[in-house]
Design brief:
Blueprint lengths: L1 H17 L10 H61 L3 E5 L5 E4 L1 H7 L11 H5 L10 H8 L3 E7 L2 E11 L5 E10 L1 H29 L3 H14 L5 E7 L6 E8 L4 H4 L14 H8 L3 E3 L12 H6 L4 E9 L2 E10 L7 H48 L2 E6 L4 E4 L1 H6 L7 E4 H5 L5 H14 L3 E7 L8 E11 L5 E10 L4 H56 L5 H28 L2 H6 L1 H16 L2 E6 L7 H22 L3 E9 L2 E8 L6 H7 L2 H12 L3 E6 L5 E8 L7
Parallel strand pairs: 17-18
Antiparallel strand pairs: 1-2, 1-5, 3-4, 4-5, 6-7, 6-10, 8-9, 9-10, 11-12, 11-16, 12-13, 14-15, 15-16, 18-19, 19-21, 20-21
């Protein structure tokens, strides 16, 4: 600034000299030289001033940068402290290792794991410090990571603990490895949990298979065999066997076994239910006390002394015996052996108790089935005797047209009256000429027509062929038209001359047996309904609850990929089991039939039929009707059987199913455009499907009509009276 002031003064002096006396003087050489000097000095001063200003600006900017860098350094220091705290707070062992195997950094968990101070670790070779070796080992994940240039994870055991050892390489900008982050994680508990989940998953699958088994198996031996096989193949037990109590000897007789038995059951001392040493093992106690008995360490359990040696030779370490009951009585035990000690805990015991509960339920079903089969055989036997009695008794059938007076009689009726003709029509007067008790018969017929009184008489006749007088029993009823006017009498007659008393007993038995047969069919259908409800409501709900629990476990497990995978598999299995239960329930008795009625059930059935077969099926329901539960299930089963036959044999492309109400009858028509069949061939082969359909129709007071021709499809028509139902 002083230089600028000095130049300013010189310029002012020069100006006065040049303009002195208000006239401009011609500058002298000296003045010109002075001016040039001043201009040069001014330029120099200006350049210095600009340089000074630039330096001043740069210094100001530098001061700002230094201030910012100090702030960053403070943050970096704070972050470094935070990183170090986080690094040391991690529970897993973390070592930062150089490519030449020197330990560069270690966290607090690493110090505790290695049991050394920090200065004893940093800079040391990891293989010397960790493995006490003088060179790297191939199993070390850092060695493998250096070779493969990627993360490597392995596992190892030490002091009854399981560890996960991993190495993660750190690369520079050139792709060269600068260090490794070596992590050692204690996974002992995780491994235990994985094993426990696998075991529980296996047991749930075991239960699922047993549940499916009891639905499809119909005999005790097959049930026991399959249960033992499932215990080995699905439950992964070492050995399984089922023993039943001999009521006379009080000994337990093995009836079925599977797995690593190797003669064990034939070598060991026979298990007893009495108060003797042979009755104090798990199986004996389970049978005596009627509750589960376990031995979680066969080697150290004194109660297993009679069988210990042979058990240990075959790798049995734990055992459980679960009592099997039938109709409330303990009849045997299901014994399972595991190759691990302390295998059976509270959860396993509860699950296995469900298994024997299912087996006990199946045994009770088998027992009821035996009783039912015995009753059915008695019915068939009695009906056969009845048919023979009718043949011997020559039961005849007749009906009288009240308008024409003509009587139609069956062949047997003709024979009873002494007419040698085949079945046919005769005038009423010709029949009346044979009757001895004419007035008695006339009065009964009159009371039947006028008052609808029972026509049940015993009269004498003189056969037209001149044979001896006979005693006959005649039964009849009146038939009316839609207006309620009597139009004909229909009835039966039977020669009871020699067997009057026996015939009365047979007729009574016939009614009782048929009523009993209907009753048995109702019981069978009710039983199916109850089984379907129990499977759906109880087992289905339990499995659904199990799924919720499994999903909850899955949500609360972190960084456990394998556990997630196993748990997902368990959930999938449960989903499949629930589907299976629903399928079984629907197969036994469609739930929709009871809840929403026949129409909804048929819509569901047709949809499933189309999805399963790929056929086009058209369902048309003209009028909804309220049907009883018994009628609904019979109509549904007939339609179900028809669709099954179409899928199996018809080779059709389209099916039509039509329901309508006509003349107080429910008419169901099922038609297809398939290949058809010869109806006579089916009759000769005695198709049980068609026979079953006809029998169901008869139970409802209806009829089945089948129209078919080879190459032209088939139509099945079901006609069921619905006078007691109200259309809506």
């Amino acid at each position: 600034m002083d230089a600028i002031n000095e130049l300013t003064e010189k310029l002012q002096t020069l100006s006065r000299v040049i303009t002195e006396g208000n006239t401009v003087k011609k500058p002298t050489d000296r003045n010109l030289k002075l001016v040039q000097t001043l201009v040069a000095q001014i330029s120099l001063v200006l350049e210095k001033a600009q340089l000074y200003q630039a330096l001043q600006n740069k210094f100001l900017k530098l001061e700002q940068e230094i201030a910012e860098r100090k702030k960053v350094d403070v943050k970096l220091a704070e972050a470094s402290i935070g990183w170090k705290n986080t690094f040391d707070a991690i529970a897993d062992v973390i070592l930062v290792i150089s490519p030449n195997n020197e330990i560069m950094e270690v966290n607090t968990a690493g110090l505790n794991f290695l049991k050394k101070k920090r200065h004893q670790i940093i800079g040391e070779k990891c293989y010397a410090l960790v493995h006490q070796l003088d060179c790297p080992i191939l199993e070390c994940p850092c060695v493998a990571s250096l070779k493969e240039k990627k993360a490597v994870i392995s596992e190892f055991s030490d002091n009854n603990k399981r560890y996960e050892s991993s190495a993660f390489p750190v690369f520079d900008k050139k792709g060269e490895i600068t260090s490794f982050t070596h992590i050692i994680k204690d996974i002992t508990e995780r491994k235990k949990n994985e094993i426990e989940i696998i075991k529980i998953n296996r047991l749930y699958f075991f239960i699922s298979q047993i549940s499916q088994l009891i639905v499809r198996i119909t005999d005790e031996q097959t049930l026991f065999k399959e249960a033992c096989n499932i215990a080995i193949n699905i439950g992964k037990f070492r050995m399984a066997w089922i023993g039943l109590i001999d009521e006379k000897t009080k000994k337990v007789n093995p009836v079925m076994h599977a797995g690593e038995e190797s003669g064990y059951l034939s070598i060991i001392k026979i298990i007893s239910t009495a108060d003797v040493p042979e009755g104090k093992g798990p199986t004996g106690k389970a049978l005596q006390e009627g509750r589960i008995s376990i031995c979680n360490n066969i080697a150290n359990d004194a109660l297993m002394n009679p069988w210990k040696k042979e058990a240990l030779l075959r790798g049995y370490c734990s055992s459980i015996a679960i009592p099997i009951t039938k109709l409330g009585k303990v009849i045997g035990a299901f014994s399972l052996y595991a190759s691990e000690i302390n295998y059976f805990d509270t959860q396993e015991i509860a699950l296995l108790k469900e298994v024997t509960g299912d087996i006990s339920f199946a045994l009770e079903v088998f027992e009821n089935a035996k009783l039912q089969k015995f009753a059915e055989e008695k019915i068939i036997e009695s009906e056969a005797r009845l048919l023979k009695a009718q043949e011997i008794g020559k039961l005849g059938y007749w009906q009288q047209d009240l308008n024409s007076g003509m009587v139609w009689a069956s062949k047997e009726a003709m024979n009873i009256y002494g007419f040698q003709d085949e079945e046919g029509e005769l005038p009423k007067e010709k029949i009346a000429s044979c009757i001895v008790d004419v007035e008695k018969e006339k009065q009964a017929a009159s009371d039947l027509i006028e008052y609808n009184k029972e026509y049940n008489i015993e009269i004498r006749i003189n056969p037209a062929d001149g044979s001896a007088m006979k005693y006959i029993s005649a039964l009849a009823e009146i038939k009316k038209n839609e207006s309620g006017i009597p139009i004909r009498i229909v009835g039966t007659l039977q020669d009871i001359t020699e067997r009057k008393k026996v015939e009365n007993e047979i007729l009574l038995m016939n009614k009782q047996l048929r009523d009993f047969g209907t009753h048995l069919e109702n019981i069978r259908e009710e039983e199916r309904k109850n089984i379907a409800r129990e499977i759906h409501d109880e087992l289905g709900q339990q499995l659904a609850a199990l799924k919720i629990d499994a999903e909850c476990v899955l949500k609360n497990i972190t960084n456990k990929e394998l556990i997630k995978e196993r748990t997902n598999e368990m959930i999938i299995l449960i989903d499949e089991t629930v589907k299976t239960v629903r399928h079984i329930s629907s197969a036994l008795r469609p739930e929709i039939l009871d809840e929403l009625g026949l129409s909804a059930a048929l819509e569901w059935k047709v949809k499933n039929f189309c999805n399963r077969t790929g056929l086009k099926c058209n369902l048309k329901i003209d009028t909804e009707v309220n049907l009883s539960s018994q009628v609904s299930i019979n109509v549904f089963r007939i339609i179900q059987e028809s669709l099954t036959n179409i899928a199996k044999y018809a080779e059709s492309s389209e099916v039509n199913l039509h329901l309508k109400i006509e003349n107080k009858n429910l008419i169901v028509t099922i038609s297809d455009d398939g290949k058809g069949f010869g109806i006579e061939n089916v009759k000769q082969k005695q198709s049980f499907g068609i026979i079953g359909m006809k029998e169901r129709a008869k139970m409802m007071g209806g009829d089945i009509q089948i129209q078919t021709q080879e190459g032209k499809g088939t139509t099945v028509k079901l006609i069921v009276p619905v006078e007691t139902t109200e259309p809506h």
